[in-house]
Fold this sequence. Notes:
four-stranded parallel sheet, single chain
Amino acid sequence: MLGAIKRELFEGIRAAVADAGYGRDVEPSTVELEDFDDEEKGEFSSAVSFAIAADAGANPMAVAADIADRHRESGLPDGIDSVTVENGHINYHLDVDRMALRTLSTIDSEGAAYGTRERADPDRIVADVSSPNIAKPLHVGHLRNTILSDALMNVLEARGHDVTRDNHLGDWGTQFGNLLHEYVEFGDEAAFEDDPIAHLLELYQQFEQRDSMLEDVEAFDAVTDEFDEAVTTERQYHVDDGKEWFARLERGDEQAVERWERFREASVERFERVYAELGVDFDLWLGESFYAREGWNDLVVEKALDEDVAMRGPDGSVFIPIYPDEYGDAGDPETASVDPSLDRARELLDEAGSVEDADFDAFYIVKSDGSTVYGTRDLATIEYRVGELDVDQSVYVVASEQNRYFQRLFVAARKMGYDEVHLEHIDYGMISLPEGSMSTRGGQIVTVREVLDAARERARDIVEEKGRDVDGDEVDAIARKIALATVKYGMVASNRGKDITFDIDEAVSLEGDTGPYVQYATTRAYSILDAAETVPAVDAIDPETFNDTDHNLLHQLGRYPLVLERCEERYDAAPLARYLLDLAHVFNSFYHKNRVLDAEDAAEERLALTDATARVFENGLGLLGIDTLAEM
């Protein structure tokens, strides 16, 4: 409701500005929603008069008064009672009774669709989400990605976009050659059968730790030349053999492929169990291997060379040169500005004498040994999505440590001729542990399994301690939903761009501003509705019986579509999580200050208001992937 009024105000202000003779375009952002209890500003305001006055050399107060007069004359939107001018701001005041009926009627008629949007021509969005590496357990970094991306994709779908979730597995690359080498040398079939991921992780860590140890030994003066040579030979054997195994994998060698497929299948099976517990699923599982094995990598390399946007280095590598002045907003096809020609790169290379010293960044797509890299596979992904999936947006939910990489990828993509697709890196802060950075190589991680188990145990203890009339069989089900609410809400509500020091006790806390707090507010609304014989029809209530506390709750309910719009604009579900917490606070205040079922004058009105509140809680929590509970 407030969203509709905001759009109508924008159109009215734009017309009023034109009618007043001010030759200035008006943006939708010039209309702002204010707090309900700010009587001076009104519920909506606009500061458009200041920019117009600055251009015209006029008094902002006079400009604001002129625009307000024109708007009154042409007619204010349904639901706006009056317009005033204060200190150069144009303030619009709601007709609170009209607002109440319009809000409740909209929620009642739209139900689960309240806040959503239908589009005649929706954007086709394919998003890289979760995207763990195989042969390793899911850790809290993957948990943050998975939960953030699931909530955001739910919002984008609700806002009318055609969304495809692609769990873009990290299942190709030199590290899998190393793992194949290690498995052949030291693998234990019984250990693999017993717990494949634990055994593969152990082998991966063993390879990395041995290589790191030998590298450290090489850095010091050896006791003898023979010892030094032995260390170098030992290290080279493992490294070279790992590279050879990956080369065999890329060639389709039967032994390499058979072992790799076992690793992948075991990983996917384990991942699926965790995703099922999280209530998350995907439309595609096109890992990096798909593009390598189905020829898309070869297509991209051939295309880059044939179209003269990539060049060969002296060592046989292939790269796309990227110049410092091309790092603008290359993700937006409207603002991207790149030079696909190699003339400039050739001149810079002649001047510098080497690729490393040339004044450009080399975005490699083939290494000197002929193997592919991340960049090859990511360009192949774009080629596939543009050609086969007809995408409008290719979206990547990946940690902020990869910001520079995606800037380079997007420039390379523009040079490759992908001119129309919107490319968006949705970054988020890194997760570290109190003892330092997480490291799979060093075994310093917290797994998703550990987090979920700890949250469920904490929730179960509380349900058993405080639950009333809860059957023993229901305790686990309720504890699971509370645990997921704790973990999911905490991940989404935090500042997406901020690095997090992950503390498992804090992450599974049920105290304070948490997901269970919002769940409990919803349960409280259900308990009121369950105690009522019926919920009255909205058109049968009298809005004049509502007091300021009721109006404040109505104002919060009216904000919901605007919050989803903000999430869509920012590619971030955090505004929704914070909104639901605010709504829970406002509803709890309403519950404590007002009588509902036994109210003398407004029982039916407040029942309708409670019913609308429960619906908004259900809608919003559903987008976050959080279940509501009939009792807690």
